[in-house]
Amino acid sequence: MNDRKNGRLTPYSKVLRKNMTDEEKRLWYDCLKYLPMTVNRQKVIGKYIVDFYCASARLVIEVDGVQHASDEGLANDRQRDEYLESLGLFVLRIANHDINTDFDNVCTGVYDIVKERCGIEEW
Question: The dihedral of CA 20, 78, 109, 58: what is its sign?
Fold first, then answer.
């Protein structure tokens, strides 16, 4: 992924890491930090900053607030997903609502995708 870095975005990604949304914090501190592989927060990939990135699983996790439900938000997400998928990455979008109301199933879903994409049966 290093050949797809964008140094102009790096300072902004550092700011985003320090100012995560409540839902991003919950997913990070109560779920993703427990994975047995590295997960990066606010990772620069090409012209985008993704919320979370697991290189071992080639997985991007995006936490979506209400702005993603608008026509413009959906169009932007589609364009972003197409770019990331063209790099061979799998994009998992998780709605804030799901984190707030169905957190255990969100974590189980993330763990299942990581295990599948990494070829791991159990950890």
Answer: negative
State CA 63 to chain mean position distance.
Answer: 7
Q: Given the structure tokens 């890491």, which residue do they identify?
A: 17
Give Cβ neighbours of residue 8 (< 8 Å, ≥ 6 apart): none
Cβ count within 10 A of residue 50: 21
Question: 88, 80 in Cβ contact below 8 A?
Answer: no
Helix axis angle, 22-30 to 103-118, nearest 10°: 60
pLDDT value of residue 41 = 96
**Token pair belonging to 66:** 């209400």
Overall pTM > 0.85: yes
What the chain holds in terms of domains, given with CATH numbers, is 2-118 (3.40.960.10)
